[in-house]
Amino acid sequence: MPTNISKEEEQAPPSVRAATPPQHVSTPTRKIVAPQFTTFQPRNFYRSGNDCINKIAWSCDGKRLASCSNSKEVKLWDIERSLDSADLSLSGSNKDHVNHVACHPTHPQLLCSASRKAGQIYFWDARRFKKELYTIPLAVDSVTYAPDAQTVLAMDRMDNMRIIDCRMVGSNEPNEWSLRDESLRLGSDAGGDSVYQAIFNHVGDMAFLAKEDGQITMVEYPSLNVWHSLPAHVTACYTLAFDPRGSYLASGGADGFVNLFDTTEFIASKTVPTIDSGIRTIAFSYDGEYLAAGCAEQSSVFIVCTETGELTHRIPCLGTPSTVAWHPTRHLLAFGGDNEYSPTSRGRWLSIFGS
């Protein structure tokens, strides 16, 4: 069959396709100025006693850090001041341990806390710190605001999921706050397959649960229908975090690994073998470039470069880190816990690291 190919084209070498740039490259290659983590020293707060920092959370404007412990109070810290004492203490009618705290995603003065022993969920306005704004009678282990802040997801010790309506009139007053009828039972009477953490995706239409059997369970929200279970760890999956850019879902487990799942197909794209101890808590930096992982037996927080999976820095802690949280607009990391492995005395501690 005749063709229209010229003699010059017949002699021309075949075209070579340009190499595809690697998806995960270092910060210098991407012209990103990395923080000099080695030049920073943590600022520490410590109090002796049989206590522990259970959870910390930044206000959405980054001006305050909320913490809760067994001291029956929620403390608000002005991180620009000294850590010798908290800026505010929220106690109200609570007379028992506070096991979880969450800050409102859009209002810097609003937050909620949970006291399992008191059997109450407390909603706070920092401008009215002497008394809680509202209470819901429910004994839960954790509370998590939905991204639109219209509801709160609560999880109790028997792994029952409940939804709380918390819409506001204007920006100050509660409007018929109530416990919805929808619920989901994930655990058994024997206590198996416990849920360690519940988080939302950025859209707020799906909740992700870290479970004792090493699975990540995906639950449609607010219908609470189980959509899928994702194998993540060979032992317990303790903690989850979403990359602010929406690219990765990170998980940490008792096997000492941090897994990064691509959020398009939820396939593990990277696995970071941090150290030989369980990963109790993880969090992404505001730009998604770094992941902090708190390791119990090592009494350390490790900073991992998200795109390369490399361990960037190790921060020695005053004890066992139980919670970590990055500032919403800065490479500033807060972490806290207790020193349960100390041979001498036990106490709670809180540290700030970065700039």
Automatic annotation (TrEMBL):
WD repeats lie at residues 46-80, 230-262. It holds the Pfam family WD40. GO terms for biological process: mRNA export from nucleus. SMART domains: WD40. The keyword Repeat applies. PANTHER family: THO COMPLEX SUBUNIT 3, THO COMPLEX SUBUNIT 3 THO3. This is THO complex subunit 3. The lineage of its organism: Eukaryota, Fungi, Dikarya, Basidiomycota, Agaricomycotina.
